Amino acid sequence: MGKTVLVIEDEPNIIEAIGFILSRDGWRVATHSNGVDAVEAVRARAPDLVILDVMLPGRSGYDILRDLRAGEGTSDLPVLLLTARGQTKDREMAESYGASRFMTKPFSNAEVLEAVRDLAGG
Amino acid sequence: MARPTLTGSRIRERRALRGMRQAELARRAGISASYLNLIEHNRRRIGGKLLLDIAAALDVEPSLLSEGAEAALIATLREAAADRAEAGAEADAVEELAGRFPGWAALVAAQHRAIEGLERTLEVLTDRLTHDPHLAASMHEVLSTVTAIHSTASILVETKEIEPEWRDRFHRNINEDSQRLAEGAQRLVSELEAGQRRQDTLGAPQDEVERFLAARGFHLPELEAGGGATPAEVIAEAGEALSSTAAREMAQGILARYAEDAARLAVGPVTEAAAETLDPGWLAARFGVGPGAMMRRLASLPPEAAATLGGPFGLVACDASGTFTFRRPLPGFPLPRFGAACPLWPLFQALSRPMIPLRQRLRLASRAEGWFVTHAVAEPVGVVQAGREPLFEAHMLIVPDRDESEEGLRRVGVTCRICPRAECRGRREPSIMAESAAAG
């Protein structure tokens, strides 16, 4: 049985596309599309990996990440952070909050796949 | 080592123009011809009464002879050299450049100012891209939509066997997304254009206000008692001189204060009293106002009145963060524009000793000439209330000093980068002046 990835992203068509390629690659894909209760969603689904958008309705991805890192059981969870701004500052911020990997929109399917495989393997 | 100064060369030039012999000028100025010769060859510094006497003998304005008129230009040239240190501008020759090629020097200075302005604009724009929430949201939406289209299109192209339902769905998604992208891009463009329209606020509104006040000689008769105008009317009258909203708002604050000061402190009585003792603390007590208000008043007297007191006077005010809120520079006492000033200024000392008026004689380290008496004080702004932290602001009145003795003199700079003092406990950043001195 494949591993589970939780995609937290508010853009339905990105969810659909990422969901499609990851399923084809053998992943079970769960999705969540708002920031407010994202931390609860992670706890409830206990995925092997999280893809987290920084700009979510209700709550910033950075805040969610911080809570995950501070929370029991999710402190080591691989998190791939998605952002629309690739400035060095954002990258540094992502690292300081404990992102396992950082990816700037727009990205290619191959990049996502590679990142997810790396993170799940490592 | 005496820094080269041009005053001597100018005296020589002026004397030659009048066809006056060195001995004659020396006699009229009450000095020996050999001393005058040293002065004319820039081997002796000159200022104060002797400069005034020589100017009188030559029948010219003292400022024409002194470096004062050029001080601002030279300071700007030094800043320009410091900003592009890699160009290797000969810092030692800055006075010579300004004296021999005033037009070129003015051009360099003007370009430096323009570059500074552009850099600031750029900073504001970058700031806007980072902090403007609307712009950031539009940008994020466009990029997200692009990501969705990119991702979906690749799936359609790269997936060999794709179920018809999925294919149809992805086609639909791309169609939807491309429409959203078109709208998002349009919104982004209109937001960027809105930023462009706001461009007049991107320059420094402080500069605009200062230029406006300087053009009026920092004195506004229509706001004096019985002048008959309100600050709002003065601003409306200013038209293009105060073009940005921010500048108009800042001017409103400054002019309202001006009107308030003017109502309490009429020009006549203040000038008369100041002729007795030019001490803002004493004058303030006499007129029942705060020393800061008195300093503002002294720095906004009509030019004729100020001249009888040895003025005009410079004034700089700052808030508790050290940021300038008001600047009236003097020709010989340039005030830094965007960069921070010398921490040794009594202005900042006053902030750590609130309510205590500080009188301090200063000599500007980067100037060949320039003796000043400064009066500084920090006072709370507005009403002081229990349970509320007061906000302080400091004022420093700058009075040109005729006395050139060393007594009680503190050497300060304008700003670190152009300050030649090698050993300074207040130094924040290296100076190109110090470097060039070490190299020479």
Number of strands of chain B: 6
Order of strands, widest sheet of chain A: 2-1-3-4-5
What is the H/E string of chain B?
HHHHHHHHHHHHHHHHHEEHEEEEH
Uncertain ranges of chain B:
434-440
Structural descriptors:
heterodimer, A: 122 residues, alpha/beta, Rossmann fold, five-stranded parallel β-sheet, 5 helices, 5 strands, globular, B: 440 residues, alpha+beta, 434 Repressor (Amino-terminal Domain), Methane Monooxygenase Hydroxylase, Chain G, domain 1, Beta-Lactamase, six-stranded mixed β-sheet, disordered C terminus, Sig_transdc_resp-reg_receiver (chain A), DNA-binding (chain A), Response regulator (chain A), DNA binding (chain A), transcription (chain A)
Give a verbal description of the structure.
The complex is a heterodimer of chains A (122) and B (440). Chain A has 122 residues and is α/β, with parallel strands linked by helices. Chain A has a 5-stranded parallel sheet with strand order 2-1-3-4-5, with helices on both faces. Chain A is globular and about 30 Å long. Helix content of chain A is 43%, strand content 20%. Chain A is built from 5 helices and 5 strands; from the N terminus they run βαβαβαβαβα. Chain A has a single domain, classed as Rossmann fold (3-Layer(aba) Sandwich), CATH 3.40.50.2300. Chain B has 19 helices and 6 strands. Chain B is α+β, with helices and mostly antiparallel strands and 440 residues long. Among the domains of chain B are: 101 residues, 434 Repressor (Amino-terminal Domain), CATH 1.10.260; 70 residues, Methane Monooxygenase Hydroxylase, Chain G, domain 1 (Up-down Bundle), CATH 1.20.58; 133 residues, Beta-Lactamase. The relative contact order of chain B is 0.09. The termini of chain B are close together. In chain B, strands 2-1-5-4-3-6 form a 6-stranded mixed sheet. The radius of gyration of chain B is 29 Å and the shape is elongated.
